[in-house]
Each structure stands twice: as C-alpha cells, then as structure tokens.
Design brief:
Two copies of one chain form a homodimer. The first copy, chain A, has 450 residues and is of the alpha/beta class. Chain A is globular, with a radius of gyration of 22 Å. In chain A, 39% of the residues lie in helices and 16% in strands. The first copy, chain A, has two domains: 169 residues, Aspartate Aminotransferase, domain 1, CATH 3.90.1150; 265 residues, Type I PLP-dependent aspartate aminotransferase-like (Major domain) (Aspartate Aminotransferase, domain 2), CATH 3.40.640.10. Chain A has a seven-stranded mixed sheet, sandwiched between helices. Chain A is built from 13 helices and 15 strands. At the A-B interface, helix 1, strand 1, helix 2, helix 3 and strand 4 of A face helix 1, strand 1, helix 2, helix 3 and strand 4 of B.
C-alpha cells in the first residue's frame, strides 16, 4: 500500500487552492482519493476497492506490468525527439498501418487527442484549401481553441457557433429525428449532412471536412445506423472535403469485433483521416493522426515543418507497441466481445423488468444504458441516472453518465473487465433501479410518473 | 548497447514512407540514428558518441536514473486522471508555486507547450473578454491552429496574419531597430508595443494579451533589454490585457541565476500567466499553465469544465517532482551559471579572433553566437552558420541554428553540460571558423568578403 502524503481533507483543500477549479472532480460532493490501481480495480486511501467502469484510457488495465516494463526500459535507454532517426517510431507506425485500410499509410505522432484533432483540421484545410467543418450535434473533439469551435457540446455553453461550423443532427435512432421505425435511418441522417452542405454552398462557403467520433460518446454512446458513414463520406467528397474519423475514445479494439469502430460501417467505408488517442498509451500521453499519402503530401508541400517536441518519442512508441502486444496476447478484443456481449444481455434483461431503462445499446465494451421517465415519451430520466451513479459509488462501482441530458449510463471499462464484473454491476443496477421504482410507486400509487 | 532492429538505411526508408514528411530530420542529407543517451551524450548505432548542445528538453541529462525510477514506481502504482483526488498533483503544484511570485498561485497541467499556450490564450480571452493578441516578430508559440495564428515564424509562411494579431518588433539590440547604442532600448521597444495598442484601439479592437517568450529562442537567442517587460506589462494592463510569459524553453533554471527567465527583468515585473513545458518532464510529455486567482476564477465562472485526459496525472507529476529534485540536488542552476558563464567567455574570446562572430549573448546555458558576413553591415552569415553546424557534426557535436536568418548558433544543452564540454565545443568552433576564414581569404586575396 502506497503511503498517503496528506490526509484526504488536506489534499482536497490544497487542490481547491492550487488547481484551476475548471478541472472538476468526480463525485465533487465527496470525491474519491485513489492511491493505486490494478486491472479494472481502483483502491482508495483506506485500501477500499472500487470496480472501474469508466477508465477507457487504462485500456489494457491499470498499471499493467508489461507497459511499465517497456516504458522503464526505454526511458533508461533513450528518450529524444523525432528529429533523430529511431526504430521505435517506424515499428509503431508500421504496426498501426497493419490495423488500418491500406490507404491510411502516413502517421503523425502527437501527445493528446486534442493535438491529434487539431492537426487533422490543419491537414484537412491544407489539402482541400477549404475552411468549413461539419460536425455532429453534441460532439466533443477536444479542449484547444480550434476544437472548442467544432464541439457543440462546448461551444453552445461558451462563445457560440462560428460561421464556418455546420452542425448536423446526432444520428440517434432512439431520441433523434429519425428513429428505429424509420426504413433507412442511415440514409435519412446522411441526407441531413447533404442538406447542410447545400446550405453552406448557397452562402459561398466551402467544406474542408466532416468530423465525427466513430461512435459518439459524449453524445450518449450512439451507434451510427448502417450506411451512414459511407453516404456522408460520398457527400463530403463531392463537396471537396474529407472525412475525419475521431477514434480517440473508440479505437484499439474497444468494439471487439473490429480494431477501429469505423470498421463497423463495413469494408466499403474508409475515412480520409483517423485520429487516435486515449487508450493508445494506457495512460501515457500519446496520440496519432493517420492519413493518406495525398493529404500528407499536401501538408508537406506547404514547405513548413511540423515539429511536435514530445510526439513520437522512443518512450511513447515503446509504450504504444507494448499496448498493442498486450491487446493481442491477452485477446482483449475477444474479451470485449464476450464480456461486452454478456453485459449487454444482462442489461437487456434488466430492461424487461425496469421501465426506467429506455434503451440499451453498444458494441464490445462500449455500452450505453439510457434511462427515461417513461417509455412512451422517452423523456430523459436525468436525476434518476445521477442517482444510479451515486448509489453505484456507494456499492464501490465507479461509473458516469453522458448524452445531451446526462441520462445515459456509460460503460467503457478497461478491456480486462470480466464476466463477474459485468454480473456484479448488473446486479447492483437491478437493485438500485428497484429502489428507485419503489420510491416512484410510493409517490404515485397508480405507478405513473407525474 | 541496445540492439538495432533495422539497418539505418531501412529505418530511413520506412520513416520516409510512414511518417509525415513535414516532420523533419536533423541533418536531413545524412540523418543521425541515435540508439541511447546518457547525460549530455548521444550514441549512434555504431556506438559513436555525440556531444549534445541542443537537447533542452532532456534538462537534467538524458535518461537520468532518478527520473526513470520515479516514473516506473508511479506507473506501477497508479496512473489515472485528475477527476480523482491524488497527492502528486498538489505536491507538484505546491513546489512550482514556491518558485514563482506569490500571485501566480493557480495551476493547470497539460501535455505540451502547445496545449499550455492555447490554454493561456483561452484564459486571457475569458478573463479580459477581449480577442486580440500582441506577439513579437519571429516568435513561435506552438503547432496548434490558434498558436500558428500568433506565431509570425509560422504564419508568415502559411495563411498570413489574422486581423486580431498584432506583431511587435523583436527587441534585438544587435540586429533590431534599436541597438546597443540606444540610450534606453527597453523603453524604446516597449513603446513599439504601446504604438501597436494605440493603432489597434483606433480600429476598435481590444487587446486580450501580450505573448512573449521570456527569452526569444527561435527569434535568435535574444535577451530582452532592461525594463522592456515591465513597461510592456504596464501598457498591456492599461489596455485591459494580460501579460503571458512563455517559459516553455527558458524555465526551470536554464538561465542559472533565476528559476524563470522572466525574473531576469527584475522583481518589479510579474507576468499574469506563465506557460511551461519542454524541460519540465525531462522528455515526458508534461506542461503547465500558472496564473492568478482572478484569471482562473474568470475561467471557472464560465461554468464549463476543462478536462485534459492525461494532464496532471500521477505519473507526469511524479516525474515533474523528480526533475525538480535533481535540479536542486545536483545544483544544476549553479552549473548553468558556471559552465554557461565559461562558455560565453570562451565564445567572447573567439570573437576577438574571428570577424565572423558578430555577437555573443546569453545567460546561463541559453547562449547564442551570431555570425555575420562583416561586422559593419551585420549582414547575416547564414551559409557560414550552416557550415559550422555541418562541420561540428563531423566533430560529433550536435548543435543547430536559429534566428530570422538562421545565422545564430544556438546553445541550449542538457543542464549537466560540463566545463570540458564547453571547451571542446569552443575549440572545435575556433578551428572551423579558422577554416572558413581561410577559404574566404583564398577567394578574396584582400580579405574582404565580396
């Protein structure tokens, strides 16, 4: 057990004084102090264990010894910048290339998803010589200035929408404008992008790119309807723009069946740029942009160097390679299929019992459970979702909500999450929803929410 | 000796294919493949040693065992995000606070200098509710979109100057508009900023911030004239803006006498925001923004979370703390004073002998030696500077040039650089400049450059 330097109250007091308060804590009314972690388990200052359902960054499990060893060995040997030749960066790029369609063959290594998406924007603009960007409503693509501008989740609360940003409806077949009863929601949602392009063109604007998470996460763990991405890519290409697949949350096998979530849309869809980040270094700051020779060539042709001080250094690449090795050796994609599939089944069973569960959706270990006040209106059950999160914390399970109304309980655990973990969290949710329904019934004897 | 995976030619071939060519190599005609490093020494694939005069990132020396140990120990224990309470982040912020003036008491941890400067821009704009930025000519503040916009070094080669950006002359008393013979160049250069503010105001624009590296590095290892920063800060404050000191290259004791380079301007000058990065993690991606309670408070008051996935994680902070410990334990600031002072003396001695050396300037281990065609015209000796770099490489010394004409030989070595290293590089430069002068004399028998 690691030694605690300060009592929790003192840590919290220092944190409030020294760290910008825009950096928020989980469970801010009673934050958790975590001292150590292993696999899918977190341990607080009293040695209390928490089951971690949210740490998608610690992809192969917290503090995996193979990753620590790879990092320490390379740190002891060399950690310099990419202006010197080194094998690790080419080894790593080569491994990533093997996971992607052939045309995505050029790589830029950076330090964060935000740096990756910003570079993707620079690449798209340089290649197309167009400025405008289409994004999906409620999307979040990063914290730097340019990405706040293309993140409706942020800019709606801040400076508002820039004239060069166009917002397409979230292709959510549960709460969106086209739902599961639509004959072809993929086409219908893609047509909303087509309309946006036409409107932009009428104003004399030109589309550089369409940015989308391959599975919108902040948007509420959304699974795109079939055919959506391919049709959008066609429309965007016709407009002279490129398709940017943001795989920062969803890549590296989280969906189980495929290495990249965009591959769920079929072999006949391929983005022009893919950005990756969070799980890539299991917590180490490393991220990447993959693109085509043509787009990279246009960026080179401007004659200006792109230098990223830490990006692609030998240690980051050694860690990235070790993460890929563990994903393969421990068959974590297979685990995501098995455990994610089982968890989804358990939640679907709960749905038959608990009217609060409006929708259960997901692939692999990327799952959302949307709570509603009642199934007819699909009115988001925001408070109930917050209650579930608070109660699960009491049961020592760490989970969070997302979606436009914070009504989606979000599962994105480390990929070593087990069948037993899935059953534990499902059992607890069953009990908590039962408690909630009891409270509702007591309040409204006829069982109808008022 | 580490094993080479690919022969150097193969590494180079893979690199050209797989990595965006905008990411350039040192000595691109014959790049160096580095396999390992220790202290101030790099070793190539044949075990050949190079003296490193440029790796300011590997601040306490390449692969310092204390840093590796601190990183590995924390990686084995916990590496999660800042939404959980942890002691390392508050310990580290507290240590940084102790190095800064009292009013700079709130910290945001990020992954790179670019993320830090972008956040500084967001903070400045939120606090002042103004948009415009004043920057110094030839400055470089980072690679993300917003920072390309405020980096004349980049935007002049790309999309040009935005209407909200105002460029002040580089306060270079050797090549600039006011020189060493001016009675008060600090005041004169500060007045150029005052004029810019007045022009901006006439156009109805409002200044959010003045951004400046505390010692402009890409600008050519410039030392601000006395009084410059204080007067600029006064003018910027009068306009309702804030002063952002970019200490990404210059912080953490590089100047020896002070921990931060802005402190060279005296105790009566204090920036409103300080950004830090490169040397902070000795190669690990970590960076930071320090600011006042008022500015941080305004950013919090917008109600929007700032979440940086990797920023401020327990591993980054453990590494940061270990770097601070090594700076103190090994008296690296003292070493910068002693060795930097000695190196500067040696270069000044060379200046008495070699007419090519127009100027020698610097503090601590931040030194520039500017080459000129002749001392009267001060015409930059760009080709000669490139020749010195190439020849030093043959002598197995890695160094680079910078400045508006790439005519400044730039010293920013790891802080463990020794007296012997300084003498070795000085001796080599002496010889190479002698060779160059012989060539010049042979070409022009009267010894005058034509």
């Amino acid at each position: 057990m690691a030694l605690e330097v300060f009592h929790k109250d003192k840590t919290l007091q220092m944190r409030r004084k020294l760290i910008g308060q825009s950096c928020r804590l989980f469970f801010s009314h009673d934050p958790v102090k975590i001292m150590r972690a292993r696999g899918q388990y977190l341990y607080d200052e009293n040695g209390m264990q928490y089951l971690d359902c949210i740490s998608n960054v610690q992809h192969v499990g917290h503090c995996h010894p193979s990753i620590t060893q790879a990092a320490a060995a390379q740190m002891d040997l060399l950690n310099t910048n990419t202006r010197f030749l080194h094998d690790n960066i080419v080894l790593y790029a080569n491994r990533l290339a093997a996971s992607l369609p052939k045309k995505l063959s050029v790589f830029y290594f950076v330090n964060s998803g935000s740096e990756a998406n910003d570079l993707a924007l620079r690449l798209a603009r340089q290649y197309t010589q167009h400025q405008d960007v289409i994004v999906i409503d409620h999307a979040y693509h990063g914290h730097v200035t340019s990405l706040i501008d293309i993140s409706p989740y942020k800019f709606r609360k801040l400076e508002g929408q820039k004239e060069w940003v166009h917002v397409a409806p979230l292709p959510d077949t549960y709460q969106g404008i086209y739902r599961e009863d639509h004959p072809d929601p993929g086409q219908a949602y893609a047509d909303t992008v087509k309309s946006l392009i036409e409107e932009a063109h009428k104003k004399g604007r030109k589309i550089s790119s369409f940015f989308a998470e391959s599975l919108p996460s902040v948007g509420g763990q959304i699974i795109f309807p079939a055919g959506y991405c391919k049709r959008v890519a066609e429309y965007v290409h016709e407009a002279g723009g490129v398709y940017v697949a943001d795989e920062i949350q969803t890549g590296f096998g989280r969906v189980g069946s495929h290495f990249w979530a965009f591959q769920l849309q079929g072999d006949d869809f391929c983005p022009d740029i893919v950005t990756m980040g969070k799980p890539m270094g299991n917590g180490h700051p490393v991220a990447c942009v993959a693109t085509t020779e043509e787009i990279a060539g246009a960026f080179t042709a401007n004659g200006v160097e792109y230098f990223n001080t830490f990006g692609g250094n030998p240690v980051s690449c050694a860690i990235g390679l070790a993460v890929l090795d563990v994903i393969e050796k421990e068959d974590l994609r297979g685990n995501a299929v098995r455990v994610g599939g089982h968890l989804k089944q358990l939640l679907l069973q709960l749905q038959t019992k608990h009217p609060l569960i409006g929708d259960v959706r997901g692939v692999g270990l990327f799952i959302g459970m949307e709570l509603v006040k009642d199934r007819a209106s699909r009115k988001p059950a925001t408070e109930e979702a917050a209650h579930v999160v608070r109660r699960l914390k009491e049961e020592r399970i760490v989970i969070s909500t997302d979606g436009p109304w914070d009504s989606v309980i979000k599962f994105k655990p480390p990929m070593c999450f087990s069948i037993e973990d899935a059953e534990r969290v499902s059992t607890c949710i069953d009990q908590i929803l039962g408690e909630l329904e009891d409270i509702h019934q007591n309040r409204t004897p006829d069982g109808v929410e008022v």
